[in-house]
């Protein structure tokens, strides 16, 4: 329950190691910010970059296939994982998790179909 809060502890450990191994670089390492807000912002930036990269790759797929896995989490909410595997014009195969969709109501075929279509639409696959 301490998401993103371990950065300060990591910073203390990093400072201790740097003092022993690279004493002349101590100032550079002490300027690194590992606060909760900084870590949260960096995780969001990395997440956004992954999404943008995947959407760019999808544009170049000549064909693709989808795989799904549905399970129920601890809070009794159905989760649908959508995977995409695509082939580019140069026959490179890329496989990634496209999305994790929470199915709030029912898990009928129509609900899963609508969730998958929205996922594909949101990511530029259709």
Q: CATH first level of the domain at 61-123: which class? A: Alpha Beta
Q: Helix count, per DSSP?
A: 4
Which strand order does the major sheet show? 1-2-3
Series of secondary-structure elements, N-terminal to C-terminal: HHHEEEH
* CATH third-tier fold name of the domain at 61-123: Nuclear Transport Factor 2, Chain: A
Task: List how many beta strands DSSP finds.
Answer: 3
Kindly report how far apart the N and C termini lie. Answer: 38 Å
The SS-based structural class is alpha+beta
Largest sheet: 3 strands, antiparallel
Low-confidence stretches: none
The helix content, as a percent range, equals 40-55%
How large is the radius of gyration?
A: 21 Å
Shape type: elongated
Strand content: 25-35%
CATH architecture of the domain at 61-123: Roll
Mean pLDDT level: 87
């Amino acid at each position: 329950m301490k998401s993103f809060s371990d950065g300060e502890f990591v910073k203390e450990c990093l400072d201790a190691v740097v003092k022993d191994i690279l004493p002349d670089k101590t100032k550079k390492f002490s300027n690194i910010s590992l606060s909760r807000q900084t870590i949260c912002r960096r995780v969001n930036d990395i997440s956004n970059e992954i999404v943008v990269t995947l959407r760019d790759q999808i544009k170049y797929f000549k064909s693709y296939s989808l795989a799904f896995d549905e399970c129920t989490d601890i809070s009794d909410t159905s989760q649908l994982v959508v995977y995409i595997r695509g082939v580019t014009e140069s026959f490179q195969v890329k496989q990634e998790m496209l999305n994790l969709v929470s199915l709030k109501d029912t898990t009928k075929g129509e609900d899963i179909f609508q969730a998958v279509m929205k996922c594909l639409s949101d990511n530029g696959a259709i």
